[in-house]
């Protein structure tokens, strides 16, 4: 059994990006530039955005953080998005979610020029991904595909079971695993809250991707011997023994499942660290005008 070290791979990729940026700058090209819009003062969002800015520094990117108070109007935000769309120095930008209730997130997402949508949330990017065209793929699925690639995990002809059908993980993961290339070429089943015989479905999986947000849901008796298990869960479970007051808990009961696996991602340190790294890969791709 091999533990997939997402933290180490993420660090390695950021170093690779930094080297490519140094070469670009040495050739006289501009530094990639990522902007982030942060509305309000939600603790989780503050941390995520601070980590994104930090990752930009490691990669040698320029970054701009644009802050608004939570009473900002949708109109003001849309106006700023239009300016960022038209600003040739900005290669890509994100609007950190969630947004306050009076703002329509879908309208905001669709206002972003899809060529600068490094989050990969714009319907044009989602559509392009599903038909195999160059696009920005959202952070978590992109990170998982990169882990499969870097650990040379065989996916072609394998049975892949995905638990969860969210727009940001389950659905794109299914698209990518069935795409006509490697990683991909898998036979994909997506299970969700209305699926029957969940245990039997999971037992069929050569590759099991757990993304339903239910801590410790996947037990040893649901996993085939030699399976690859990817745990996307990141639920904060209260834990009084920790300074933070919580323990980040995956969807897989790691201790009992790990001995049965050929590969498994831990939580934390598996898929999580790859997400910001995916954003950095997308920003470099935007700067290179790859599509
Ligand atoms: N909130 C939680 N994850 C994300 C993400 O990947 N992008 C944005 N924009 N907001 C988020």
Attribute tags:
single chain; 291 residues; alpha/beta; Rossmann fold; 2 domains; six-stranded parallel beta sheet; three-stranded parallel beta sheet; 11 strands; binds guanine
Describe the structure.
The protein is an alpha/beta fold and 291 residues long. It folds into two domains: 28-114, Rossmann fold, CATH 3.40.50; 139-272, 3-Layer(aba) Sandwich (Rossmann fold). It has helices at residues 6-26, 43-59, 74-86, 105-111, 123-130, 139-150, 170-178, 198-203, 254-257, 272-287; strands at residues 2-3, 33-39, 62-68, 92-95, 159-163, 187-191, 207-210, 227-231, 235-238, 246-249, 261-264. A six-stranded parallel sheet has the order 1-11-8-7-5-6. The chain has a three-stranded parallel sheet with strand order 3-2-4. It has a two-stranded antiparallel ribbon with strand order 9-10. A hairpin with a 7-residue loop joins strand 9 (235-238) and strand 10 (246-249). Helix 1 (6-26) runs parallel beside helix 10. It is globular and about 55 Å long. Bound molecules: guanine (GUN). The site of guanine has 6 residues, from strand 4.
Q: Evaluate the radius of gyration.
A: 19 Å
Biggest sheet layout: 6 strands, parallel
**Structural class from helices and strands?**
alpha/beta
CATH superfamily of the largest domain: NAD(P)-binding Rossmann-like Domain
Strand order in the sheet with the most strands: 1-11-8-7-5-6
Give the integer mean of the pLDDT values.
98
Determine the strand fraction and express it as a percent band.
Answer: 15-25%
Query: What's the number of structural domains?
Result: 2
Which residue ranges are poorly predicted, with pLDDT under 50 across at least 5 consecutive positions?
A: none
According to CATH, the fold-level topology of the largest domain is Rossmann fold
Oligomer: single chain
CATH architecture of the largest domain: 3-Layer(aba) Sandwich
List of distinct ligands in this structure: guanine
Shape: globular
Give me the number of helical elements: 10
Rounded to the nearest angstrom, the distance between the terminal CA atoms is 39 Å
Order of helices and strands: EHEHEHEHHHEHEHEEEEHEH
Write down the CATH class of the largest domain.
Alpha Beta
Indicate the percent of residues in helices.
25-40%
Give the tally of β-strands: 11
């Amino acid at each position: 059994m091999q533990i997939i070290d997402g933290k180490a791979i993420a660090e390695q990729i950021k170093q690779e990006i930094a080297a490519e940026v140094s070469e670009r700058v040495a050739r006289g090209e501009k530094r990639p530039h990522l902007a982030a819009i942060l509305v309000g003062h939600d603790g989780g969002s503050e941390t995520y955005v601070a980590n994104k800015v930090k990752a930009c520094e490691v990669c040698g990117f320029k970054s701009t953080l644009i802050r608004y108070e939570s009473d900002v109007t949708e109109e003001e935000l849309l106006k700023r998005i239009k300016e960022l769309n038209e600003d040739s120095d900005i290669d890509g930008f994100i609007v950190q979610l969630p947004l306050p209730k009076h703002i329509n997130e879908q309208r905001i997402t669709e206002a972003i020029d899809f060529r600068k949508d490094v989050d990969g949330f714009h319907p044009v990017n989602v559509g392009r991904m599903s038909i195999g065209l160059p696009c920005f793929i959202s952070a978590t699925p992109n990170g998982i595909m990169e882990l499969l690639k870097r650990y040379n995990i065989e996916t072609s002809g394998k049975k892949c079971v995905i638990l969860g059908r969210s727009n940001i993980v389950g659905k794109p993961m299914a698209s990518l695993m069935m795409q006509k290339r490697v990683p991909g070429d898998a036979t994909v089943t997506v299970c969700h809250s209305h699926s029957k015989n969940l245990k039997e479905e999971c037992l069929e999986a050569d590759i099991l991707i757990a993304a339903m947000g239910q801590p410790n849901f996947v037990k040893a008796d649901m996993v085939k011997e030699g399976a690859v298990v990817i745990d996307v869960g990141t639920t904060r479970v209260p834990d009084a023994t920790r300074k933070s007051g919580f323990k980040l808990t995956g969807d897989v009961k790691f201790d009992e499942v790990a001995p049965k696996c050929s590969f498994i991602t831990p939580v934390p340190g598996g898929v999580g660290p790859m997400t910001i790294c995916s954003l950095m890969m997308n920003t470099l791709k935007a700067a290179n005008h790859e599509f």
